[in-house]
Amino acid sequence: MVNLDWKNLPFGYIKTNYNVRCYYRNGKWGELEISSSETIDIHMAATSLHYGQEAFEGLKAYMGKDGRIRLFRVEENAKRMAATATYIRMAQPPLDLFVKAVKTVVSLNKEFVPPYESGASLYIRPLLIVVGAQVGVKASTEFLLLIFVTPVGPYYKQGLSPIDAIIERLSDRAAPLGTGHIKVGGNYAASLPAQDRAHDLGYAVSIYLDAREKKYIDEAGTANFFGIKNNTYVTPNSHSILPSITNMSLIQLAEHLGMKVERRQIPVEELPAFEETGACGTAAVISPFNKIDDVENNKSYSYCKDCKPGPVCIKLYENLTGIQYGNLPDIFNWVTFVD
Ligand code: PLP
Ligand code: COI
């Protein structure tokens, strides 16, 4: 294992040994290639650079107490990348190719998988871009699927610490019938002004509202939103949020733990009714909200006593990470081992 300060890793880029690449040319995918280069050769007229025709994914590999490396629901990331690719008119990487590429890149970089209980994991970043030349706004024919990995610490502070959120009323990350439901780079570029504003005002994350009416909760930065009340897990149903694999898993876990689940619009006025709220995602895992401020309306909603996570967030976190790290049985068949 390489020598890194595993307990204090940022959520950032650290060079590893290898990445994997696969080109789509002449209507078909080629062989998986292993590379140790950190750069790519891309035509200056590639439409990824001009028109944001680019799809990406994010998932993690976890080192278990048993010394085995686990991927969490990798097929779901494959399906979501295929959905993104279809929408922005790119070739879909077949599910088998995607899974094989992820397993290969993790296996090649085993020494970068953070040790069990370091609070860190190996972040896997699949990228699908156009490499051929094109100047008109139209579908391309040459693509590159590239997957690199980097060891990361938690996205928001350490482990399950509650964070402060601000409701974003000055911008939207995606239009009502736009690209919020797929994982394209432009959504994240569009979220930077809100993120800067949140950080400047001392908040960890912005909560977006529906772009049409500004009435309902959409999602939280790079994570989905959930609220807990009366033994019910409530999460927004909106076309402009990314279908989070973590959220999908928490829904199943909540039901398994005997909770009710509601997927529906959540009006801002409902915020005071929740006992707990939080953000969930691969990077964020479960990040409970300590408070949510609606600055423009001079309102603040608090959820934590002494900034401690609530009992339902703790229970969901333990069940989710228990499966990811192999401490609990994989009852839903979510885990893929990497040898
Ligand atoms: N919402 C957005 C905008 C995201 O970027 C992510 C991260 O991928 C999520 C939600 C959480 O999705 P997942 O749980 O699949 O990581
Ligand atoms: C993820 O949770 O994987 C993300 O989307 C994080 C990210 C965009 C930094």
What's the arrangement of secondary structure elements?
Elements: E1 19-25, E2 28-29, E3 33-35, H1 47-51, E4 54-56, E5 59-63, E6 69-72, H2 74-87, H3 95-108, E7 121-130, E8 143-152, E9 163-168, H4 185-189, H5 192-200, E10 205-209, E11 217-220, E12 223-229, E13 232-235, H6 245-256, E14 260-263, E15 276-281, E16 285-294, E17 299-302, H7 311-324, E18 335-338
The CATH first-level class of the largest domain comes to: Alpha Beta
Helical segment count: 7
Strand tally is: 18
Small-molecule components bound: pyridoxal-5'-phosphate, 2-OXO-4-methylpentanoic acid
Can you tell me the residue ranges where pLDDT is under 50 for at least 5 consecutive residues?
none
* Major sheet details: 9 strands, antiparallel
What is the percent of helical residues? 10-25%
Q: How would you state the average pLDDT, rounded? A: 96
In CATH terms, what is the architecture of the largest domain? Answer: Alpha-Beta Barrel
Question: How many whole angstroms does the radius of gyration measure?
Answer: 20 Å
Given helix and strand content, the structural type is alpha+beta
Overall geometry = globular
Domain count: 2
Distance between the termini: 15 Å
How is the CATH topology of the largest domain named? D-amino Acid Aminotransferase, Chain A, domain 2
Kindly estimate the percentage of residues that lie in beta strands according to DSSP.
25-35%
Order of helices and strands: EEEHEEEHHEEEHHEEEEHEEEEHE
CATH superfamily of the largest domain: D-amino Acid Aminotransferase, subunit A, domain 2
